[in-house]
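Structure record:
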Amino acid sequence: MRPVFVQFRCTPGKTYEVADAIYDREVVSELYSTSGEYDLLAKVYVPEDQDVGHYLSERLFDIPDISRTLTTMTFRAF
């Protein structure tokens, strides 16, 4: 499994609904409310045999009231 971080910008006033929908999908290991450009930050473990883009698109990105996402890939440093 490789960890990927996804930030979500939500439609104003819909952050709690989006967060609930994300948790309902049972895909994220951690989910935080954040300040700044994005409203939520999620840590997702993507199976090694899965394409990250397809995995996230099929499981998270169709949730209503997500207006933008930013995905940060991680790499083994050592």
Notes: DSSP finds two helices and four strands in the chain. The domain at 2-73 is CATH 3.30.70.920 (Alpha-Beta Plaits). The beta strands are 2-10, 28-33, 40-46, 66-73.
